[in-house]
Write a structure and sequence with these properties.
CATH class of the domain at 1-77: Alpha Beta
Helix content: 25-40%
Mean pLDDT: 86
Shape: extended
CATH superfamily of the domain at 1-77: Aspartate Aminotransferase, domain 1
Order of helices and strands: EHEEEEHHH
Strand content: 5-15%
Radius of gyration: 21 Å
Distance between the termini: 32 Å
Low-confidence stretches: none
Oligomer: single chain
CATH architecture of the domain at 1-77: Alpha-Beta Complex
Strand order of the largest sheet: 3-4-5
Length: 147
C-alpha cells in the first residue's frame, strides 16, 4: 500500500464503497485500532466513531473483552454450520430468546449473513406464504432502482 502520512491514496488496490475518487486522491484516513466508542488513525489520533460501522453492527464498542471471549468460544466450538436441513445449538437458543423478546405473534426466525441474504430470504418466505395460501400467481417482486 502506498500511503502519504498514513493515508490511503489513489495508488491503493483497495476499493472503498461510496467513496468519491476526489476524496481518495486527497487521501483517506487509515484506522488502525478501536477502543470503546473511539477509533485511532495510523498516527494515533483519536476519533469518536459516530458511524458505528454504518452497515455492520459494531454498536457494542471496540475492545469488548466479554464479547471477544464469547465469539472465541463459539468459533472454537463450531464457527458455522449450514442452516439447510441442519440446526445448530446457538441458532436454536437465539431463536428461543428472540421469540420471548419480540412483540406480537412473531415467533420464527431465519439468521442470515448479510442484507442481500436477508432480502432474498424475505422474498422466498413471501413467495412460499402465498403459494401455500393457494395464491400461486403472487410471485412478482418490485424494487427501486439501486435497491
Amino acid at each position: 500500500m502506498t500511503t502519504s502520512k498514513n493515508k490511503l491514496d489513489e495508488t491503493s488496490h483497495l476499493i472503498l464503497h461510496l467513496t468519491h475518487r476526489d476524496a481518495i486522491k486527497k487521501g483517506i484516513m487509515v484506522v488502525n485500532k478501536g477502543e470503546g466508542i473511539n477509533v485511532y488513525d495510523a498516527e494515533g489520533k483519536k476519533y469518536i466513531d459516530l458511524t458505528a460501522g454504518v452497515t455492520r453492527p459494531v454498536h457494542l464498542g471496540y475492545g469488548n473483552k466479554e464479547l471477544a471471549k464469547a465469539i472465541y468460544d463459539q468459533i472454537y466450538q463450531i464457527p458455522y454450520f449450514t442452516p439447510m436441513m441442519f440446526a445448530n445449538a446457538p441458532a436454536v437458543e437465539l431463536a428461543e430468546v428472540l421469540s420471548e423478546t419480540v412483540p406480537g405473534p412473531i415467533n420464527r426466525f431465519a439468521f442470515e449473513c448479510d442484507g442481500s441474504e436477508a432480502v432474498e430470504t424475505a422474498m422466498k418466505l413471501v413467495k412460499h406464504y402465498h403459494y401455500f395460501k393457494g395464491e400461486k400467481g403472487r410471485f412478482k417482486v418490485i424494487s427501486r432502482k439501486g435497491a
